[in-house]
Amino acid sequence: MWLGGGSCGGGYLEVSRMESRLQAADVAQEFVTFLSQSTLPDVQAEAAHYILGLTGSETGRSLLVSQKGLLQALARLLEAPPAAAAGAVADAWRTLVNLCAEPSVHGALLAALPGLPAQLLGRALAPSWPWAGEAAAALSNLTREAGPGRQLLEESGFEATSDAAQEPSLARLVTALTTPGYNPHAPLHYLASLLSNLSQLPAARAVLLDPDRCLIQRLLPLIHCPDSAVRRMGVVGTLRNCCFEHRSHEWLLGPQVELLTFLLLPLAGPEEFSEDEIDRLPVDLQYLPPEKEREPDADIRKMLIETIMLLTATAPGRKLVKDQGTYLVLRELYTWEHDPNVRLACEKLIQVLIGDEPEAGMENLLEVNVPPDVEEKLQQLDQQEQQQLQQEQEEAVQSPSSPDGLGPS
Length: 409
Hints:
mainly alpha; disordered C terminus; 22 helices; disordered N terminus
């Protein structure tokens, strides 16, 4: 190991690095040959499996993305017919999923494969493609950063299409996600995660919130999808991002969408209410059966609460949320809830529901300008809350909790 060596040591190290790069390039070229369509299937499969193993470490991933020819060979293998060397093709797709999961290599990956996002989307939306699930997972990983997401929007016609009879890509994505059996050969749960990532961009939210397209309404039943927490998480994340557009709140809460009912139902349990309280609830939340269960995933429950919180950002939104019995559902949820992070989110929303209205000029909480000193204090309070939550979680691990997990924290 050379630490602060002189010119001789530094030169030796530089030569060693150059030799390593040349050796890596030679090995990569051999693997390009092994991955070609003319190679024997067994050799091709062995090479693809070895490359997949390299993605298990940061060093291996960095090595792979530094070899443009090897990446291009992998991209060609992705397009191989399903019957040709299926093992090699499957490992090539898994390799790409793992590479896309590493943000530090996205730049090099997209530089070597500039059309990758559009290629992945095309395969993810192909109804019979056997690795459409892997294509969706790779895109989900890749679009966690805004740059690749914007590239996908620009290249794939998410916002518009030149053919009036053809759906824009974002609508086709929603169709694939919401159509049972759209691809009988592959699960498409990660399309929901992709949609959630894209909905962080204003252009995507504008398409999703277009009342004439009815895309939001098609997504709502998936909030209760029993088959996949990934799908539920992605759809709820999409709805939460869309709720940052406060100008759409009244439409979302109104009779055309009735978003609040879909958000509250997974948070509601089998508790009984008085007749007066039942009359305050939406029809779909009245007289729920004794076997009614809440959303089992704590992160999704928290996200549902955060989405409702966003809908209370404006005065009309707060009124609509309050008038539909939201407090009653949150009150029972808080009593039942055992996760400290969800309890905290629930408590904050309850405070909004039972608290006084903001003073004049501050009715829209999403547009309030917070003074720097106040913002700093709020950040400090938030840090204190997180520290307290972490301490409570550590104490819960160290000491046994009550069997039912009820009671205030």
